[in-house]
Structure to design on (299 residues):
């Protein structure tokens, strides 16, 4: 009997090549079906060296890596004429809205992951979850009041009713056919024509509006937001490093921050750190990297 592929989609630009690699590696390290994993990487142009690192996943684990340029998709280009972007929310974040059109037609189910996550248990646990006939499955966002209504829970006015269930879109399990039948592009065009898009907070609120009461709740363990040290003993499946503290930053203090560096690998971690560090600090990063590598050789 042929193995069933596990399809995982990520979207990122070249600023997040190393966190994307850490997500992929965390999946492969914790799965007993790593050779069945197919990574669908939706990204803007990458430096050749960065792309080469991402492709190492195949050599190390046997997983398949496929690259996509959403800008080459006509539907994506049309969508971007309607949606607003910022430095924090570049066009690439909207890729998840069109995954049903970007990945091959034979893909029936897709896991979408943000690049600020680390997978701690076999990803097949999520992939095989019963979706209850819904187009997506996701975990509740405990911070939804502040997200949807802003400071003092009253400074923002949106179409989101705080009494409705609200999910975080950083971890999604997607039923390809049902997702496509929802016609996200059509609904977004309708929102644009009505003027509603001006009040919508990027992709997460769009998804919550479109899939209102039409999504399957996941356990909080599949999307642990802003994880701290106590979460390490709670058997999380996926940690989601939202907020300002990221595990690729030194001294972040988040859950498994030291393990994360080694999942990313020291080589990639220090390369990424140097890329994000002012030039005058880079000699210090180089010394730290050399010391780490020397210790590894000595062992």
């Amino acid at each position: 009997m042929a193995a069933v592929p596990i399809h995982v989609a990520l979207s990122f630009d070249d600023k997040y090549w190393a966190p994307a690699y850490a997500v992929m590696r965390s999946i492969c390290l914790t799965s007993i079906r790593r050779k069945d994993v197919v990574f669908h990487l939706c990204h803007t142009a990458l430096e050749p060296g960065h792309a080469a690192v991402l492709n190492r996943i195949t050599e190390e684990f046997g997983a398949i890596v496929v690259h996509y340029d959403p800008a080459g998709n006509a539907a994506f280009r049309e969508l971007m004429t309607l949606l607003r972007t910022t430095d924090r929310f570049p066009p690439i974040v909207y890729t998840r809205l069109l995954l049903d059109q970007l990945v091959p037609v034979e893909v029936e189910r897709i896991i979408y992951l943000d690049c600020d996550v680390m997978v701690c248990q076999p990803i097949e646990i999520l992939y095989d979850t019963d979706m209850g006939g819904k187009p997506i499955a996701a975990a509740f966002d405990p911070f939804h009041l502040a997200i949807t209504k802003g400071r003092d829970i009253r400074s923002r006015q949106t179409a989101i009713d705080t009494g409705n269930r609200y999910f975080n879109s950083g971890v999604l399990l997607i039923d390809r056919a049902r997702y496509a039948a929802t016609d996200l592009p059509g609904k977004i065009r309708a929102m644009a024509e009505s003027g509603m898009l001006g009040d919508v907070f990027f992709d997460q609120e769009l998804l919550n509006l479109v899939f209102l009461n039409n999504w399957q709740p996941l356990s909080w363990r599949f999307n642990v937001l802003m994880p701290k040290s106590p979460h390490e003993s709670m058997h999380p499946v996926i940690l989601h490093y939202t907020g300002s503290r990221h595990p690729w930053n030194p001294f972040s203090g988040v859950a498994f921050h030291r393990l994360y560096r080694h999942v990313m690998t020291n080589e990639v971690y220090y390369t990424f750190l140097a890329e994000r560090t002012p030039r005058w600090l880079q000699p210090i990063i180089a010394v730290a990297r050399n010391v780490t590598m020397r210790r590894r050789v000595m062992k």
